[in-house]
Every structure is written in C-alpha cells, then in structure tokens.
Amino acid sequence: MASGTEEARDATLTVGELAARAGVTVRTVRFYSTRGLLPPPVIGPRRVGRYGPRHLSRLALIEDLQHQGMTLAAIERYLERLPGDLSAQDLAIHRALVAAWSPDPAEEIGRPELERRTGRPLDDGDIARLTAMGALQRAAGSGDRYRVDPGLLRLGAQLLDVPIAYETILAARAILGEHTRSAAQQLTRLFRDEVWDPERVDAMRSLSEHIRPLVVQALVTAFQRSLNEELRAAFGTEAPGP
Fold first, then answer.
1. Bridge-partner residues for 137, per DSSP?
2. Residue 65 burial by CB count (10 A; 0-12/13-18/19+): exposed, middle or buried?
3. Does 200 have pLDDT greater than 80?
4. What whole-number distance in Å separates Cα of residue 125 and Cα of residue 173?
C-alpha cells in the first residue's frame, strides 16, 4: 500500500504528461476522473494537480479491462471492489493477470520509440531486464529494433527501478509461469467438467467471457493475501512487500 507521503513525493506528472505516458488524451483522463475511475491528483503549488505511478497503473488497468470487452459500467464496478489505497505495484499485479486473458498483439518499434514509451533512456542492462521479463525481444535481422508486448512493457518499465538481479527476474518469471499455467489448466478443466454444456455453445462462450474478469480478480486477491502472509512469516510484520 502507498502512503500519502510516498504518493505526494512520486506525483510529478502534469495531466498532459500523464496522458502522453498512458497513450490517452487529456480529455480521457479528465473523463475517467469525473467518473471516479482515477484517484484525485495531488494538489501542488499554484493548485496544479500532479499525477504519479498509481494513476498510470490505473489507466493501464482500465485499458486492459476494455480489451477484455468490459463496458465502462462494468469497469466501474470492478474498480469499486478494489481497495482504494492500492499502490502502483499492487495494481501492476492485477494488470499482469488481467492481461494474461487478453494479451496485446506484439509490435515492432525502434529504440527511440521504445524509450518514449518507457519514459526514460535505456541502457543495455535495462534492455536485458525487459527481455527477461518477456516485455520485448530484439527483432530478427535488426540491430536496434524490438518486438514488444505493450502491456508487459508498461509493467516492465515500472519494475526497472526495483533493484532485482537479472537472474532473479528469470527465476521469478519461471515460477509465475509454471503456477499460473497450472491454475489456468485446472480452472479450465473445472469449467469444462462442471459448467460447459455442448448443446449451448454460444451461451457458454458468453458466460466464459463474463466470468473471466471475476476469476482474475479472485486470483489476484488470493495471491496477494498469500504473498503477504508468506512475507510476514519470512521477514516479520515490518518487512516491505515486493
């Protein structure tokens, strides 16, 4: 969870900069704000609103839910069920699992566009870490062009500031990949064996699309609860979460 002090310290973006980083218009940001989909900005000097990582994560999560085909009203209900003080890292976990249901198509972009999207200059170490996260890979036959996963790239850019070794990222990715795949397979088998009706294919597909976001949110909530319990057991109640 993010404290008010941390949020104020990290809120450095104007509404225009936030919109540019998120790939939306200023009008969209203001519209989402009026609907309560975004937390209010931090008010700084001269009454100028400033935005930070939590707002970026919220915008990215809204976009992912839209890709799932959710209406704005459904997204509002989904976000209402989330704790209001979730940090950018907490929201990133939600995004990573939501995106797994509907991954963005890969794009091929050059180094300047890659740095624009991540909002920072990238050195070779950054490129290696983003590659380890699965956010990008070097395009075949091109020295400075990359195939990127837009959703994972946004998440990976936030994680670049976290001091985790390249090898640790690879190990974490393997663990998450193994267990999320296992959960997906078991849930799919359960749905197929207990719910699926081969004589009502269209209705079953519609039901599947509607329950996916609920399953994702249940997975996120269960994972975060288990992770917090394991961290407390391993490091004590004062240990910070990842």
1. 147
2. buried
3. no
4. 17
Question: What's the CA gap between 66 and 159, in Å, rounded?
Answer: 24
Cβ-contact 53, 158 below 8 angstroms: yes
Burial class, 137, CB count within 10 angstroms (exposed 0-12 / middle 13-18 / buried 19+): middle
Between CA 137 and CA 131 the distance in angstroms is 6
Q: Please classify residue 64 by burial: count the beta carbons closer than 10 Å to its beta carbon, then call 0-12 exposed, 13-18 middle and 19+ buried.
A: buried
Q: Take residue 49 and report the two structure tokens written for it.
A: 């609103």
Q: How far is CA 97 from CA 7, 18, 94, 151, 203, in A?
A: 24, 23, 5, 11, 25
pLDDT, one tens digit per residue, over 65-115 is 887 677 888 888 878 877 766 777 777 766 665 655 555 567 888 889 999
Are 49 and 38 within 8 A, CB to CB?
no
Coil, helix or strand at residue 48: coil
Measure CA of the first residue to CA of the last residue in the chain; give whole Å: 11
C-beta separation of 19 from 26 below 8 A? yes
Count of CA atoms in the C-beta half-sphere (13 A) of 78: 29
Rg (alpha carbons) of the chain, rounded to whole number: 19
Q: Average pLDDT of 129-145?
A: 83
pLDDT score of 104: 57
DSSP run (H or E) holding 169? helix 166-194
For the chain, list the domains and their CATH numbers: 4-86 (1.10.1660.10), 103-162 (3.30.56)
C-beta atoms surrounding 120 within 10 Å: 12
